[in-house]
Request: fold
Amino acid sequence: MLKNNNTKIMVTVALFVALIAIGAFMSIPVGPVSITLQTLFVMLSGFFLGKKAYLASIVYVLMGVIGIPIFSGFRGGLSSIYMPSFGFLIGMIFSALYISIMFEKVKNINFLKSLIIFITASVIIYLFGIPYMSYILNVYLGKGLSFSKILSIGMIVFIPGDILKCIVAANIVSRKQMKKYRIE
Reply:
């Protein structure tokens, strides 16, 4: 039984790594950061993978850093750590972990509870992404952008899409039959 569970976990982690990568390829460039579907799949991994959710994001980031072109714009390699958007990728790891912890604690999962968890998880991604983007753009690239400009190009423009992704994810996971697919 344990072996089958480990196999199920490995296959599901691999599936979410692939989905996160596919989400990166579905991108709309908007300045230094692109609009992608990655965060939707990170949110869903947080629900379906349980405590192992962060593994999908870690594997995804490591695959990109070692050179597999799976980041937005088909980029990859060690130089990816100098992308203004790399902090958002780091934030996805912690976001998935947060989501998994919250869904373990929440009883009677419903749409509103799920939506609040996913919106908070999006904020976690921004907490890593915005400072990192500011550092890369202002210190590493010497752009001298104000914090309000960083917020404008790295967060404000993405809020409507992020809210929509949170609504979609909350709608999926709040359905009664979805709980049986969650790995505990």
About this structure: The mean pLDDT is 92. The chain is about 65% helix and 5% strand. Strands lie at 28-30, 33-35.
